[in-house]
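FIELD: query
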Amino acid sequence: MDMEDKLKAIVTEAETAIESVESSRELDDFRVHFLGKKGILKELMKGMGRLSVEERPLIGKLGNEATQRIESLISQRRDWIRGRELEDRLSSEALDITMPGEIFEKGHLHPLNLVLDEIKGIFIGMGYKIAEGPEVDTVYNNFDALNSPKDHPSRSLSDTFYITEDLLLRTQTSPVQVRTMMANDPPIKVISPGRCFRYDELDATHSPMFHQIEGLVVDEHITMADLKGTLDLFAKRLFGEATQTKFRPHYFPFTEPSAEVDVSCFKCGGEGCRFCSYSGWIEILGCGMVHPHVLEECGIDSEKYSGFAFGMGLDRITMLKHEIDDIRLFFENDIRFIKQF
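FIELD: result
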């Protein structure tokens, strides 16, 4: 075999051998074996002196090409090894963002997550699915499709964060209901938790960023009785089996009829105490039958289908359940606060 064939054989051997190199240590051994001072390529090129003057330029050129090819194989393999080592390190060090309690200390969860998980568990147990949507949404989805009049106070610049004339930070999770109805045919049965934004001054009970959980059911023959039964069961599961509910007439543009829901005080059993302002009742959410205009706007036949919707503030529910008197504690990231839960 002449030197040209031997050079080609060395390159082929190197291309095959590089695939079995798994570590930086093995890569160093590979380099020494092929390109070291006593490596097989160097040893072969020492035979250049025995070649004729005419052969030397060609073999020299082929030798340089072989060296460059092997250097390229080493460089590519080094990048592969470093990438794999980085992935292994990241996988062993990474935090699981689906388990927020692990970020702080094992056994401790943020109170908002505790109550959110509890509420989701209640509604999932009743056959609801979770629906999500963007926090930046259109004015149409946030207001127009929900039957909100053009002069409604919530649409003013003093209440809503507008990005453009057509985009805003959602003021409620109701746009998720609009998106769900437009994308799916009945029956629909979902809850939509998420962050919302309104132009509120930050104090003990108000925040420009807060959390809501809304629910939506659309199907044939849905009535107010279904709504009342659902929310009464929800209240008993969340606050205790002795909890009673009270529905008070109210107005929301996207439901008709509409109501606000109170629960009997779970501290005093409805007898009256400081916690419930001695009324025996605590307001927890708003609800109503989905307005026919909203159904039609979302492409659902209001003659065939009906539905109900409800919405509650996760921050308020959490403050009630855990007797937290300042909403700002939820967002200050004080580990001493987290450790209480």
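FIELD: remark
The CA atoms of residues 139 and 164 lie 9 Å apart.
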